[in-house]
Amino acid sequence: SYTCENSTTIEIPEDFIFSASTSAYQIEGAWNEDGKSPSVWDTYTHNHPEKIADHSNGDIAADSYHFYKKDVEALKSIGFKQYRFSISWPRVIINGTKINQKGIDYYNNLINELISNGIQPAVTMYHWDIPQYLQDLGGFANPIISQYFEFYANVLFTNFGDRVKIWMTFNEPLTNCIGEYGEGRSGASVRAPGVGEYLCGHHVLISHANVYHLYKEKFYKKQKGEIGISLNLRYNYPKDEVITKDFVMRSLDLVNGWFLNPIFSKNGGYPEELVKIFEQKSIEEGIWSRLPIMSEELKKKIKGTADFLGVNYYTSRYVAPITHGENLNKFDYDTGISYSMDKNWYKGITAWAYSVPDGLHDLLIWIREKYENPKIMITENGWTDSGEMNDFDRIKYIKDHLAAVLKAKEENCNIIGYTVWSLIDNFEWSEGYTVHLGIFAVNMSSPEKERIPKRSARFLKDLIANKKFEIC
Ligand code: PNW
What we know:
Layout: E1 8-11, E2 17-21, H1 24-27, H2 40-47, H3 64-78, E3 82-86, H4 89-92, E4 93-94, E5 98-99, H5 101-116, E6 120-126, H6 132-136, H7 145-160, E7 166-171, H8 173-182, H9 196-223, E8 226-232, E9 236-238, H10 245-255, H11 257-264, H12 272-285, H13 296-302, E10 308-312, E11 317-321, H14 330-335, E12 337-340, E13 346-347, E14 354-355, H15 357-370, E15 376-380, H16 392-410, E16 415-421, E17 440-442, E18 451-453, H17 455-466, E19 468-471
Parallel strand pairs: 2-3, 2-16, 3-6, 6-7, 7-8, 8-10, 9-11, 10-15, 15-16
Antiparallel strand pairs: 1-19, 4-5, 11-12, 13-14, 17-18
Helix pairs in contact: 3-5, 7-9, 8-9, 10-11, 15-16
Bound molecules: 4-nitrophenyl beta-D-glucopyranoside.
């Protein structure tokens, strides 16, 4: 229970932005309407329902394609001034190759509805739903993908850039590259654990940089927007007294640094430690280095290509060196890190959900020190429930994490705002509809798909209105 004897009031700075987040495949439905071509998630869920907890899919989901006005209404009712959503690549570009005007119309309607309600759109270009056609050509394992991605981004800037001023190229490439190419989640036709993840990561970085340069050269002067990227980051703590501080710091460099270092570090390129590991591994394994080589020219091209860093934070971990015989994914094996949890961390209902608010604070300080205090927007943070409307655990989670963010901000981290994942309950990937992360429930069995505020929605409404909250 959360009875609280002496609470503290936390004040929220006047200009701090509050936002809520969703992604296209998880909410839109209309998977084959108005010319939309299939994404890998359509194919995967249709061909392999057994891989999804409740054998469901995103064919209809919250039906935001037809009910986007309900989403905007929900946002407005809470007082959010920003909405982070993603655009479905295969809806806007059929098979990744042909422009679909009806897809463009849909996002124009959504963007206009947001703006006329005083809500600023913040758009993710790619939240894991690559056109199946491009996946069949190798997806992000094929270097040509950067040209297709640039073509797509060009269409987005051309059509929406007059009104969209905040862009995120990618959402969580680490999760996506490991999931697709390492673990075979979502039907990548190229599954190559230990190779595919790194090819994917490499071409994500190149695609991201190309799109950043495209914007700066062709659109920025007129549109004056910002380009960032959303990375899923965690903090690590030593599992026991035997684990050295060096090991912990190195683990952060290896994992968080994979995507942070090339874009946000002073010298660019992959973390030195990561490169070293693969030099060793290729000698041991007698094969070509599995981490693609980043030339000096490419380092230069990728370095500094973000106006802000989007931080998606859910949890942290204890770390220790791997021991013989552990069953690990290839990335954990390559980096040599074994993860565990503290039995005192509050646990949610998915395997990954442990509440570690200190980890968010410590992560933000670590980024400030390591990457010269970049501008940061928290682009995801959220908690699971199993269907209850009085979601007190989520309220506590949000309070604790917001307090951690504001503390880091007071300690001079350049943080401009906080985004909750998610605005509405939605298709939670492999968990289907069995796990809920929305501050609004969605009546999935009703054709009207009503959005119903949970207790946490009302909490956030008060918090945004009063610019303060009470914490224990
Ligand atoms: C994110 N972790 O994934 C995704 O961006 C969302 O699409 C998803 O619905 C949401 O979180 C909830 O799962 C995660 O480090 C990535 O524990 C990493 C972690 C958790 C979630």
